Amino acid sequence: MNSVSVFAATRHFFTLLRPSSYRLWSALLYLLLASYPLKAAPTQVPLTVTEQVYLSAHPVLSVCVDPNWLPFEAIDQNQKHVGIIADLLALVGSKTGLQIQLHPTNSWDESLIASKSGQCLALSALNQTPEREQWLIFTDPLLEDPNVLITQEQHSFISDVASLNNKTIALQRGTAMAELFTRDFPNLIIIDTDTEPEAMQLVSDGKADLTLRSLIVAAHTIKKAGWYNLKVSGQIPGYENKLRIGISQSEQTLRGILNRGIAAISEQERQQIMDRHLSLQVVSEVVTDYTLAYGLGILLLAVIGTSLFWMRRLNILNQQLSVMAQTDALTQLTNRHGLNLTLEKDLERAQRYQHPLSVIMMDIDHFKQVNDQYGHLAGDKVLVECSKLLRDNLRKSDIICRWGGEEFLVLCFETTQEQAVHLAELLLGKIRHHHFSEVGKVTVSAGVAQANPQDNAESLTKRADSLLYEAKHNGRNRVCVATENLDTMARSKEPNRE
Ligand SMILES: Nc1nc2c(ncn2[C@@H]2O[C@H](COP(=O)(O)OP(=O)(O)OP(=O)(O)O)[C@@H](O)[C@H]2O)c(=O)[nH]1
């Protein structure tokens, strides 16, 4: 560098130090620091500079809550926010340094109005819905739990809400589930209530057929209110409670801070809070009157007994629910939902360990004619007999599922394409030679595909489905397989199926 350029560089350096450039420097410095998370205090989660600046300007977060939603949350007689959500929020507050301040209201409706008009910056815990997205943004879930359908004892199991016609469902006004049910199930007549206990009461009194309730809240209130004529009759996948903090749309930085606090809650802390609110309250007052003490003891035992009874009952019901939700009622085979729960994982495992995995997609030929000629009941019997034939001719380790109406999918582990074709031909032969009690002879077509390293569950089943379509197109009663060379994971291994 010559002396002229040294001079120019030095002059440029001093120019940058002039007061007019301070702004530029501080902006650069700020941007640099803002991109690194810093530890604000030993007890707090790491926050970026932007978040720290926000916190010092807005240390208090005003929160509106549901004043009557125990054990999730409530406002007690001392105007204090209590319940599971209150404890989780307090934990988020202590981890982030935010001071959570309750904005008291008399109802959830009032809380929604206060939030919309900006009287409180946050709503403590609610599901994210399109309507609420109009004025709120949402954090990650603070708490998750399933919603269950509650009916009277004698009601049968509900597997499909869409098929319930002219049934009445009591739902609390202004809740996410009320919004989603109005949109998704026009077949149901919705009865609005002010609170969730009121909805349960209507079902218990026979004035509504069903209600939808969080499993945690249902167990709590059935126990507390003694609604022993009620039971859990079903669960609808996709309608779980994912309770998040809802905040005003402008507060992106606040959402970041809250998310850090939520992520920092450990499983143990979460469990302690749940245990605290879902276990029995013990009376700690000193009792000198022993008659009263005995009475309380018996009452406590009765409550414990009832709780255990209900916990066991809910447990059994939920086990039943999960099995029924994954089983096809007609054929007793795994249904599509059941298969989808494991298919992606099975496929990933096969890809990871380079084991061959194939699927056979099968469909009964001209099944519409069977129904038309012999009737729907005869058609149902064909489906049942066909399922049994297939099941009996497969290994225990293979999974067979009723994929749709007259369509079946077999998932074959440790099986190459050639072996799966062989198996499919064997299955088609069994069906071809079987005499179906109601209709005589039936044939089936099949498409076979082996998983390749790039497949996901959807691409694999789609490939098998289009090969099945080809089998139909080529005359039915046959197996179709891809002819191109597979870049497969374990063609070289080719273990014997038999
Ligand atoms: N009995 C009975 N029929 C069903 C069931 N599910 C679907 N189906 C009937 O299966 C038939 C399927 O008809 P299509 O899709 O036209 O197929 P197909 O007649 O088998 O003709 P191809 O598949 O082309 O050989 C329809 O008539 C459905 O009503 C069921 O659970 N029971």
Structure notes:
- The chain has 498 residues and is α/β, with parallel strands linked by helices.
- Among the domains are: 30 residues; 125 residues, D-Maltodextrin-Binding Protein, domain 2 (3-Layer(aba) Sandwich), CATH 3.40.190; 45 residues; 148 residues, Reverse transcriptase/Diguanylate cyclase domain (Alpha-Beta Plaits, 2-Layer Sandwich).
- It is built from 16 helices and 21 strands.
- The radius of gyration is 31 Å and the shape is globular.
- The termini are far apart.
- The structure holds guanosine-5'-triphosphate.
- Guanosine-5'-triphosphate binds next to β17, α13 and α14.
- It comes from Oceanisphaera ostreae.
- Its EC number is 2.7.7.65.
Quick overview:
The protein is α/β, with parallel strands linked by helices. 45% of the residues lie in helices and 20% in strands. The chain has a six-stranded mixed sheet with strand order 16-18-19-17-20-21, with helices on both faces.
Describe how the helices and strands are arranged.
Blueprint (H helix, E strand, L loop, with lengths): L2 H15 L4 H13 L3 E2 L6 E2 L1 H9 L2 E5 L3 E2 L3 E3 L5 E2 L1 H13 L2 E4 L5 H9 L5 E5 L9 E10 L1 E6 L15 E5 L3 H9 L4 E5 L2 H9 L5 E5 H11 L4 E6 L5 E8 L3 H12 L3 H12 L11 H36 L8 E2 H17 L4 E8 L2 H8 L1 H17 L6 E4 L4 E7 L3 H16 L11 E7 L6 H17 L5 E3 L17
Parallel strand pairs: 3-7, 3-8, 11-12, 11-13, 16-18, 20-21
Antiparallel strand pairs: 1-2, 4-5, 5-6, 8-15, 9-15, 10-13, 10-14, 17-19, 17-20, 18-19
Guanosine-5'-triphosphate binds next to strand 17, helix 13 and helix 14.
